[in-house]
Design a protein that fits this description.
single chain; 1022 residues; alpha+beta; six-stranded parallel sheet; 23 helices
């Protein structure tokens, strides 16, 4: 444990480390500039991540020049450079160099087929593993004996030439050679001092059913002294012996993956002084993790910083988090990473970032890896599982506030001592017994659900718990001093969810523990109530009797409630309306020295995105006399008022906002000079005065209109009116160069101010010739807006009221390798993840001082959105006009991105002014709000409902309120045409109307424009 953590300015190692997407032709000076931007934003480093769109050859001399420049700049900035071990993902194929060595190195799947001997041709079947009698499953041999008759079963392997066999240690050694050693040999030693480690991303065994490896027969024999080929059909066929075979097979697979892939890389990195971090694929469920990993928990032990990922704007999986944190606690891995925010969409804001990661903090995850920070948004890159959290965002200058907060919490969780009270047996081996390669088997989901239910039930009771993985128990489990010990953690309470199988080491450990008086609770298996096996073999009668005699409950919730009652004096108790708060999760850490005092740190989070909670919180005293609140903004301590002692707990009422969190510290004596803090919900107080929703637009950064529909023609053929999004895919199908002409039309109202300059934002303008309303003009580059890819081209003066047309012409070209890669990408994701194009066809944007008027129907949508059906035209500027601030989308700003300022003047009597303490309002859609009252700063807000202390700023008479709104890029970039409206799972296809270039179908489409509402409402003085 470190000395007292510096909460005012946490060091770089605890700060978020983004995936920095290297996705274009790289320039070392631009890379350096972007690193300086990261430093200013409070980020702690970067992962140099080769990604789709990359046009600098991976691992080339030019690539290494960029890597070295970045490490040099990282050293100058005092942040950490990290490598990423692949060109795209999943890790292991070395950008094609490893799998390119042949079948031995390539990924293989186990397949089978039934055949009649009479129908077989003389020639041998390719890739045969073994032949069997279909009726008896007798092994006939690797080659079919002459004269064989009857029905046959053939097991064979299918080769995926685009990925690798990660079970084979020789394959992994080759990956280390072409990637890790290449970096080590080509980074100058002084620069290695600024290189912290390397990220491995989604290494896997199979995502296409049962796996095969050429090493399995020998390894199976070494492990079990059994011939795998004799038992192979039982992996997918059900017999009384199948359970034991499947347990043996998947246990071996999980061990080989951990030792041959992770441990080998871990040991190499340790020798060089590098840290290994990253995450695996499909961690969340039993059914998903079997084929891809064998078992996920054994993999985590060989990371220096183990990790997971969380996709989409949804609650993270409690199972995935608990699997990860359990292993980290058991093996003493202080930092625990999560790659988060991918697919959350362009409207993910500071509130959403906090809401998602606070739940992970409350489960013990403590290092943020934001997905994604894109080098450029050019072309397909802007649709790369957005959002991109980088300099192109309008809110970038305020991003440090989020990163400082994440660093404070992460540091406290990493440096405090973590303790879990309860051990939960993971039911994965029970799922192994049912796995045949078909993940849709409902038995598999049953064992996932029992684990999830016990985890959620324990979370509701704020009971800290870890999982016991049976392989880890076999290697590291013991019975010591009346407790089960796994690695560094000891447990005196065990819960067994609904299972059917126990490993022999786990069984022996549990029996010793129970015999010594240890508490073991079980949940009755409702699916297979009579079944109990040990390593897949039917359990002896005395084992069955022992197991049935354990305290048993009919539900996971009942078992958790029983544990909560027995552990009441030791645990945090959080209730709402007198019952356990179902929307609250929490964790704690013990400190010998935090702010100069020993004590316990608590982190409490509301998982509800929309609902606040009125809580009663009871924290164990542990010798403490008061509760202190740690300010998330600066790390300062305040003594909480209204706390009273109830037995061995300190109890207090605490309102927690929707998506909110709080940090508490209980120590033996108070912080020096700590102020008293009274906490109340400002939205429960009656309003003294409500201001109208009508505000004057005081300033705007410039308005925007997205032009995503056009007319186009190819090689002077017929004109086609369609969405811009369809053109790229259609041209790629031609598989040839062509002349492309595009016309983007837009309308100007009669009151449009023609004296104002109008620009268009376009990508790669050097590839096009231009005309406006039939007159050609030079596309002079006037800099960029938001991202360096969005080049400003000023339109000439021949604009007119009514319809205007921008004409663009180019020679469309792709390198032949693009078409070859597209063909390969149809077969496996490694190729798709390395796609880049020479020519890309994109929407363009109009930028200037104007309003955007919508004519047509408006449909309300979920998630704070609305659909605008109809047409748009540009009209007179809105600056200086009064607007309904509750929905600025309908007030002329449907596609707006940037900052705008609203102003309102209001009068107060002296009597009214002296009673006002707060200004509050409900935010609508924006990322953040900055408030000025009477020309004085009143505060910055980005975390839900907003309330500002204004007693010192307000006065009798006329008052002037200014509210600056900062948006995301969502309404500019979309996706605009999803039938669902605003999506919380935004992927590359979310922007398409037609299938993409590899024939993946998009979600349902709607021609209207889905927009996130923007503004403020219910502005009140309290």
């Amino acid at each position: 444990m470190m000395n007292s953590p510096d909460l005012t300015n946490p060091p770089a190692q605890y700060r978020p480390i983004p995936f920095w997407s290297w996705n274009d032709k790289l320039d070392p000076e631009e890379l350096r500039r972007q690193i300086r931007e990261m430093k200013k934003a409070g980020l702690g480093g970067f992962f140099m991540h080769a990604r789709g769109g990359l046009q600098t050859a991976y691992l080339s001399d030019e690539w290494m020049e960029c890597v070295n420049a970045c490490l040099d700049e990282a050293g100058k900035c005092g942040i950490d450079g990290w490598l990423y071990d692949e060109n795209g993902w999943p890790s292991g194929f070395g950008g094609g160099l490893v799998n390119g060595l042949g079948v031995k190195y390539q990924q293989k799947y186990l397949r089978h087929e039934y055949l009649d001997a009479a129908d077989l041709e003389a020639s041998e079947r390719e890739n045969t593993i073994a032949w069997y009698d279909a009726a008896t499953l007798e092994l006939l041999g690797e080659k079919l004996p002459k004269g064989t008759a009857g029905r046959l079963l053939r097991c064979y392997y299918e080769v995926n030439p685009f990925y690798v066999d990660n079970l084979d240690p020789k394959v992994v050694r080759e990956f280390l050679k072409v990637t890790h050693k290449h970096y080590y040999d080509n980074i100058p030693k002084p620069l290695l001092a600024h290189m912290k480690g390397i990220f491995t991303d989604e290494p896997q065994l199979s995502r296409n059913g049962l796996l095969w490896s050429f090493i399995l027969e020998e390894e199976y024999w070494k492990a079990y002294r059994c011939e795998l080929l004799k038992e192979l059909p039982l992996l997918f066929l059900g017999t009384p012996e199948s359970d034991a075979v499947r347990v043996r097979f998947w246990s071996l697979v999980a061990r080989l993956f951990a030792e041959n892939f992770l441990k080998q890389i871990h040991d190499w990195c340790s020798e060089k002084g590098w840290l290994l971090t990253g995450h695996h694929v499909l961690e969340e469920t039993c059914q998903a993790q079997i084929a891809s990993n064998g078992a996920i928990m054994p993999q985590y032990r060989y990371y220096h910083i183990p990790g997971m990922d969380h996709l989409c704007r949804t609650e993270p999986s409690p199972v995935a988090m608990t699997q990860l944190v359990s292993v980290a606690m058991q093996f003493g891995q202080k930092q625990i990473l999560s790659e988060s925010f991918a697919l959350s969409g362009w409207n993910i804001n500071f509130f959403g970032l906090r809401w998602m990661f606070q739940q992970q903090f409350a489960h013990g995850v403590n290092l943020v890896c934001p997905h994604l920070s894109s080098y450029t948004l050019r072309g397909l890159r802007k649709r790369d599982y957005p959002a991109s959290l980088f300099y192109h965002q309008p809110w970038w200058e305020d991003y440090r506030s989020v990163n400082d907060y994440f660093a404070r919490v992460g540091m406290l969780l990493a440096e405090g001592k973590a303790v879990a009270e309860v051990l939960v047996l993971h039911p994965l081996s029970s799922a192994w017994c049912h796995f045949t390669g078909d993940e849709s088997n409902p038995h598999l989901d049953f064992y996932t659900k029992t684990l999830e239910r016990i985890t959620r039930a324990l979370d509701v009771h704020q009971i800290a718990h870890n999982y016991a993985d049976e392989q880890i128990v076999a290697a590291e489990g013991s019975f010591e001093h009346g407790a089960i010990r796994i690695g560094l953690q000891s447990y005196r309470y065990v819960i067994i969810p609904q299972i059917t199988n126990l490993s022999k080491p786990v069984l022996e450990l549990l029996r010793k523990f129970a015999a010594a008086g240890g508490r073991v609770l079980t949940v009755r298996n409702r699916l297979e109530p009579e079944k109990l096996t040990v390593d897949g073999e039917t359990a002896p009668a005395e084992v069955r009797a022992w197991f049935r005699a354990l305290p048993a409950f009919d539900s996971e919730e009942a078992a958790a409630a029983a544990a909560a009652a027995e552990l009441a004096e030791q645990r945090t108790v959080i209730t709402e309306n007198g019952v356990p708060a179902t929307r609250i999760v929490s964790t704690f850490r013990d400190f010998d020295n935090l702010d100069g005092r020993a004590g316990r740190f608590f982190f409490v989070a509301n998982v509800s995105y929309n609902q606040p909670c009125d809580l009663e919180i009871s924290l164990p005293r542990n010798g403490g006399r008061q509760v202190e609140v740690i300010d998330p903004a600066d790390g300062s301590f305040s003594v909480l008022s209204g706390v009273h002692r109830r037995g061995e707990h300190l109890t207090f009422a605490y309102p927690l906002a929707a998506g909110g969190a709080a940090m508490f510290y209980v120590a033996g004596h108070p912080a020096k000079h700590a102020a008293k803090l009274t906490v109340s919900d400002p939205f429960r107080e009656p309003a003294k005065k409500r201001l109208p929703d009508e505000f004057t637009l005081a300033a705007a950064a410039g308005n925007l209109l997205t032009l995503d529909r056009c007319r186009y023609r190819v090689d002077e053929g017929g004109w086609i009116a369609d969405d811009v999004s369809v053109i790229q895919g259609r041209l790629l199908k031609l598989e040839r160069d062509c002349d492309l002409e595009i016309e983007y039309g837009f309308d100007l109202a009669d009151d449009y101010d023609f004296s104002k300059p109008l620009a268009m934002l376009t990508e790669t303008p050097e590839a096009f010739s231009f005309a406006l309303n039939g007159e050609t003009f030079e596309g002079v580059d006037s800099g960029y807006l938001f991202d360096s890819a969005f080049r400003k081209i000023m339109l000439p003066g021949n604009l007119k009221a009514g319809r205007n047309v921008i004409y663009m012409k180019m020679r469309y070209h792709q390198n032949p390798e693009v078409y070859a890669r597209l063909e390969r990408a149809r077969r496996f994701e490694t190729e798709y993840n390395m796609l880049t194009y020479d020519s890309e066809i994109e929407s363009i944007y109009l930028y200037g001082d104007f309003s955007v008027r919508h004519t047509g129907r408006v449909e309300p949508l979920l998630r704070g959105a609305e659909r605008l059906c109809g047409s748009f035209e540009l009209g007179a500027p809105a600056t200086g006009r009064k607007l309904d601030a509750s929905d600025l989308v309908r007030q002329g700003f449907p596609f707006f991105a940037g900052k705008l300022t609203l102003r309102q003047e209001f009068e107060l009597t002296a009597s009214e002014a002296e009673k006002i303490q707060l200004l509050r309002f409900v935010p609508v859609g924006a990322n953040s709000y900055r408030i000025r009252l009477n020309n004085e700063e009143a505060g910055f807000w980005s975390y839900g409902f907003a309330a500002f202390p204004v007693a010192q700023l307000i006065h009798a008479g006329k008052n002037t309120l200014e509210i600056e709104l900062t948006t995301s890029l969502r309404n500019l970039l979309g996706p605009h045409h999803l039938a669902e409206g605003e999506s919380y799972s935004v992927h590359t296809l979310s922007f398409n109307r037609e299938a993409n270039a590899v024939s993946w179908e998009p979600p349902a489409y709607d021609p209207g424009y889905s927009m996130v509402r923007l503004g403020i409402r219910d502005v009140e003085l309290v």
